[in-house]
Structures are given as C-alpha cells and as structure tokens.
C-alpha cells in the first residue's frame, strides 16, 4: 500500500499539475479527481486479473499463456515503460532540486546521485523498499500538513470558480496526465503480485491505495489553484515548489521549502528505486535470469543515460512529459492487462496446468 | 607431544607417568604449584595436588589436604578395597561441595588453569578436579556507563558468576536459564547464555548457541570480541548487539524475551536482538514517572537528530542555500563569518576534529588532567580561535551543541556510530548542498532498514511498523497500560487486566470520614 502511494505522489503534486493547469486552468483539481477515479478502477481490475494466477507476474503469466517469446516481448514492453517512467521521475527529481536549490550544479550530478541511491535501495530488495515506503507515507503526510499549515491563510476559493469552466470532455482528457502517475502504480501491481504475502486482498488494497494516494495528491491542485491561481500555476514547470515557496509560518519562518523538499525527496527517491527495481526485474525475465540483481547496473546505465538525455534540456523534458509520455504509457498500461485478460479467457486451462512460475 | 596427542592423552594408573606428562606440558611456571603427599601410610599411597597460585582459595586447599592427610590416614585395612575408584573417594571421603572426575589430561590442565585443584593418586587412572576458584576481584560498584538518577546502583564486575548472580537475584523464576560455554582456544573464556525459557522466541537461543559455537579464535578478552564475531551486519557502522553494565537492564531484557550473553572478565553483558530505538532508552525512563520518562526520551531523540544533522544542515545552509535562513539570523551568521578565511566546510571539519581530539584526550588522560584538557580545549582554545578569526562564533556554538547532544544519547556505541555518520553527511552537504545531504541521508536510512539483529529488523517496530509495540518507543507509556511484552517475545501476557490504579470503592478517593 505504502509503495503504491509513494510511486504516485512526487510527480503528481507538481509537474503533473502544472501540465494539467495549462490545459484546463482552474479545473485542474477536477481533472485530478477524475484521474483518481480512473486509477482506482484500473488498479482494481488489473489486481483482480492478476489474482487469477497470483503466483505469476504479468510477464510470467504471458509466458505461460502464449509461450516464452511472447513473455519476453511483454518483458521488453514493461522495460520500455519503466525507461520512460524513469525519465519522468528524473524530470521531477532533478527540476525540484536543480531549479530551486542548486541552479549552477551540472545536471549529471543529480542523475548520478539519484541513480546511486536508487541502485543501493533496489539492491536491498522489495522488503527494504517497502519499509522505506512506509517512511515515505509519513513524509507525504508531514509535507501535506506543512504546506497546508503555511498556505491556508492565503487560500481564496474564488480562484477555482466557476467549476467545470473548461467543460467535461477537456477536463476528462486532461486527466491523462495524472493517469501516467497511477500507471506506474498499476504496473507495479502487475509485476509484484507474486511477492505479496496476502494476495487475496490485493484488489481491494490496490484500489484503496490509489484512492488514498489520490486524496493526499488532490489537495495540491486545490491549494495551487486557490493560493497561486491556476494561471500562475500553469506558468511553472514545478508548480508545487512555487506553492511551497509562498508558504510561511509567522514572520521568522518565512521560507521553509527546504524542509518540505526533504520530505518530498523520500517519495521521489522511492520512485527512482522502484523504477530501477522493476526495470531490472523485467530485464532479468527477458534474459531468463532468476535474480534481478545482476541486471541492476546495466539497467541503471540505460535508464540513467536516457533520463539524462531527457532532463538535460528543459524543453525536451517538458515535451516528453506533457505530450509524448501519456500517449506511450497509457496504451501500455491499459493495453497489456486487456490483452492478457483476453488471452486468459482463451488459454486459462494452459495456465492452470503450469503451477510453478518460470 | 603434538597438540592433538596432548588433547587426547588420558591419565594412567601410574602416578609418576601422570606427573611427568603434566610437568612436561606445564613446565616451570612460577604460579603453578604442586603439593605431594602420602594419603595412606599403610599402603604407602602417594598423591599430588596441582593448583595455580592466585586463582585458588588457600582455605579450600587446606581443607582438601586436611581431608586427604588426616581422614585418609584413618581409613582402616586395605585402601584399595575400601575406596577402589575416584567416584567412591568423591562420595565417601572428600568434603568439598564441587568435585568432578576427569580422565583426560587436557581437562585436568584446563581445570588447573581455571582455578580448580587437580588431585592425582597413585593407582587411579583418573583425576579429581575440585573447585577452589577464588581470586581478587573488583567489588560491585556503580556502572561507569549507563548511569541513572533513580534506580539501582549496582553494576556488573569482571567476575562472570558475580554478574549472573546479580541477575538471578532479580529474577527468582525457575524458567531463568543459564547455559555455559567456553570460547577461545587459548584464553578458554567462560561464556554464559541467559534467557527466560517460555518467554524467548523459538529458535533464538539455538541461533545464538550456533553462532557462538562457530567462533574459532585464540582468545576472547572482552565481550566486544563476541559482539563482532556473531553480529548480523559485520560491515555496518551500527551496533546490532547492545551491551550494558547494568543488571536491571539485563533482567528487563530477559523478561522481554531477549537473550543475554555474559562473558568472563568483563562487566559488559551483550543483549540481543537489539533494535535501533533501544539506544535511546535509559533505565530511569522506567523508574521515573512516565511523563518524565517520555519527556526525556523525546529530548534524546532531538539530541540524536542534532548530533547527526546539525553541522551538516549549518554547512549546507551557509554554503549553498543562504536564502533559506531567516534574514536576521543570516545577518548574524554573516557578520561572524566576515573575518574567517576558510570555507564553511573546512571550518566545520576542523572544529569537529578538534572536538573529537579533545574528547579523546580527555578520555585517555588521568581524570584530573582530562578535565584540565577539556577546559583548556573548550574554553581557552575556542575563545582564542574565535578572537583570532579562525572560526566563527556560530560554528563554535554548532559544534558545542552537537557535542553535548551526542553525549545525551545513553548508549556509548550508538553515540559513536552517530558521530561517525556525521562526517560523510557533513562532507556531502558541504560539497553538494541539499542534493548531497539527501543522497547520503537516504543511503544511511536504506542501510539501517536493510540490517537485522538475530532475525529482527533493526528499525522495528517503526519500520516495519508494529502498532502493538509502540508503547515503549518514542514515548514511555505507563506501566499499567503495557499489557504484553514486545511482539518478538513468545510470552503473551505481562500483567493482568484493569491494572490502572484507582481509589478503592469511593468515587472521590481518600479515606472515609467517620
């Protein structure tokens, strides 16, 4: 649950809101709410599908249903998904720190630092990352409370009126940006089910986790719209940092965004770790390895190189995050379970015959 | 004779052969004494006692000799017919309470070197090992570490049996078990594993036993050797086995289902499994009112954060993120740093090293000189350094507060670990600002999350989160609310229901007035 909440949070509160704000202005919070509802539904459906064969991940399930090479094809697709996700995660991590705290530091430094922490965490496995995610949930709550505390006096509800000003269809269409955030969580469910102890409750837990993460995220577009205004929010790449900057407690503590970024970093680094872990896992399935650890360094090198290429140029990064990535990630995250589901209907006897995971 | 042959050699019925072999092995150490005697004049039966001077009680030796020389002479008729084995001698002649027969030479030698007296008689292919251990030892005093304001003042000594007795005195339960082992090929150090049967988790004692049995080392001079040889994370800076000088702390740990390892010749007893949060718990948290205990525990957590992070945060803010410092404070810091020629990172490292230098010098020096070193170091050099413009006053404050905070952590090894971690965090913060701080801090957190102590997660019950164990972590809940021991214990019950005290019968409390 903590992992799902963390992997959705960091990008969704800032980068995503800025992008949504540019499309639907003050309806960004509504777009986020619609995205949450879609996320809850998809997470539930995918988890339910995975529960038909809880001992298999999606890659293994595909392999059992239609053959080893098809499984490898799915593994490549999932690897590519995490390659792109890692780039967006790095956009979030790097621009938060670089643009607001260390503008003169070279970009490569941020990518290397994130990779080092990410690889170290991923090497220690899912158990350690889950515990870290628990710390991450605490950080998310603290960050939310801090920003609420520092911004509540500046909130002006008139800034989000009139509601649904952009119309339902554009608002719904804009939610695709938030959908890329829960897509990460859904892919996690599809890959990690065999590692979950009480898999019988997975569908409910997954849906609840996406819902809870959504609740902790949705207060950000509301605050960004009511404190900064939607117009101001849409001018920034990292909108949440602008909100954090405007927050203050009394006169003495007039800027405390660094404290907030410390809490934000937990969630962001968990995203980095999980991306590396899942990409290495799918790479190990692709090569037929039993352990994902030998794939960590090569995967880190590939993901790191691609992410660096993306984040090195702000224009390229935003073009990829705002325009290309939703069109790549959503077909994968929605299409894969659909295809697997259809295949399951036709070949479920074959799957049941295979008791042990490959 | 080769080592293996020496170990396997057994006593023969010829006293002369036995003494020659023993003398050949023990040679002429001045503290090894031998006393020859004739036990039964009629049969002219010769005997010999081997003992180590300084490790034995003279009274006990005199008692042994008196028994053999006086009562032995009084045996009528044929000696061999009356007492044909050492078992009979043990049962019918000797008056000492702890005696065992040995057949191997190696056992006899180990006994002699451990303070027992070996008695050999002509015609018997065995030896009698009589416990006569007695040596000068430090009396029970207040522990040098783990001091308390309220609580018992007795601390462990270098004598293992005194130490176990201090715990036995506190737990008068037959389920309290002590298992003996010997570790160290040459030192043959006595080790006792202590636990509460029925309370300790299944498999934990076996695991401890196995790890101790695996130790193959020439000597164990302190429990620190054992700690390093059996811990789960040998490469970690964190200590995954706690040590204490306090018998009450050991007793409390045993009641919670932990295992204690007593090592002879050291007052430090090991406790396991150990959790990180334990290092912030002091004994008097439990003896003071729970409000007070909880408050001081929170103070210690703050001290931990200060000790770990304050210099790094200061260096990071002053070097990279000046805009985050409140304006008035930034002006004060800037005015202090105006004349300082060094970058803030260099200044911080210099001051931290100077502090560590003073701490180490103060610790190693004789006490009165040590105090003088501290005073000279902290007051005179600090003041002079500020006046000379080498360091800023703010940096002196930061380093001093950090140092004081590190001493507020009750456990010395935890305090040292935090002190060590401070340096990489400081360097990373000084070189990469927030990025460096975040990267190193998270790597430390991941590392701490990944390690275990005898099967238990080191950061439990915080991560993984165990709601039932939260009553004794950040806060110390009142005793009447702690209904069961920690979840790693096999025991389910600590006290009965409704133990919260309240006035009996009356609603307002107090005695009824007639």
From TrEMBL, chain B:
Keywords: Membrane, Transmembrane, Transmembrane helix. GO terms for biological process: spore germination. Coiled coil: none annotated. InterPro entries: Spore_Ger, UPF0353/GerABKA_families. PANTHER family: LEUCINE ZIPPER PROTEIN 4 (PTHR22550:SF5), SPORE GERMINATION PROTEIN (PTHR22550). Belongs to the GerABKA family. This is Spore germination protein KA.
